[in-house]
Amino acid sequence: MRIKxxxxxxxxxxxxxxxxxxNLLKYGAIPVGEICEILEKEQSNVSKHLGRLRLTGIVExxxxxxxxxxxLAKPSNLAHKELITAIVKGLSDIExxxxxxxxxxxxxxxxTRRKKK
Length: 117
Prior knowledge:
Strand content: 5-15%
Number of helices: 6
Order of helices and strands: HHEHHEEHH
């Protein structure tokens, strides 16, 4: 990885909302609407952050019907992978990130129960 790419990744991640999004996406693909609900942010705001993460190559999107799912992109090289892994691991003990994950897991549990009915 070139230093310019590393700098772009670090600049992109220098935002609380984008860090919270990355923290959620480590658990798999999530529709943008669900990200908005968990973060309690407007869709236009979240979409701007997701766009920036996508342009940097940190996340990728996939259209499913009317919704768009976002997930962490596969890193282009080992240095990129190690950088993202270190950042994601470093987030796991911060309280707001723990709360976001707890909310995500509750939402996923509720969806699973609705599907079984």
